[in-house]
Structures are given as C-alpha cells and as structure tokens.
Design goal:
The chain has 145 residues and is mainly α. Helix content is 57%, strand content 11%.
Amino acid sequence: MVTDYLIAVYSVVKQWSELREYVQELWGDVAYGGLNSAVAGTVSNLAIAMVKMTDADIFENLSAKLPRVSDVTNEVEEVHNATLDVEEQFLIHTYRNLVDFIKDFQTTRSGKPTKPMPAEISNWDPKRNLQQASKHASNGVEHIQ
C-alpha cells in the first residue's frame, strides 16, 4: 500500500509540475505576448482548484491503511490513520534549504553569509543522530526524543 501511495503521489506531483509550467507560460504570454490577464487569472484559479481536488482525493482514498514492518517481530502490520511526510519523501526541506543558501550566496557573492544566515543555522549539528530526531512541535521544528 505504501508503494501504491508513493506512486500516486509521484504521479500527481508530475501532473502538478506540468500544470504549473502551463500556467507559468500563460503568465509569460500576459507579460510579453499580449494575452488578457483575466484569462490567465481564471486558468490559474482553475489550476489551484484542480490541485486541491486531487490532494483531497489522494488523502481520502489512500491514507486509510498503510502497512509497516514491526520493529519487534519483523512482521508486516497494518497501521490505521497513518501519515507519511510527503515533504520528506520529496526532499522539499533540502530543496528549500538549497534555495535559501543560493539566495544568501548571491546576496554577498563573497562566500560569506549575510547577517541573518548564521542566526538561522546556529543550532545546526552536522554530527546529529537523525534516527533520534522527530517532529514534536506544531511549527515543524525537530526535537530529539
């Protein structure tokens, strides 16, 4: 079931990416080709509605039962109402951190961080045991158990 879920999510993300590219081209046509902005705005609203509908369908249909392997017995068990961290599956946190780094680097062009960056990464520990990390706070900040 987890594989089915991930395949469905990957497929949807691919479709969302294609939809995003199309909408981006529409706005390019507004800026450079004379397309009416009302048309691009309407299509953008439709695209957002499509993404929301797909998102609701996926989580309604696939999140009911997900199997997992027991740590104790090493047997497959069913987990009810389990959730997967899709951001983690698609490395979205890594992407966001990379974008932040590139923006910061482009600001100084010297390799030295801007003043806000050291404060943002002050508690980063490259030797941290990630197997002991978990998300407890609602703001997404990870804490060690």
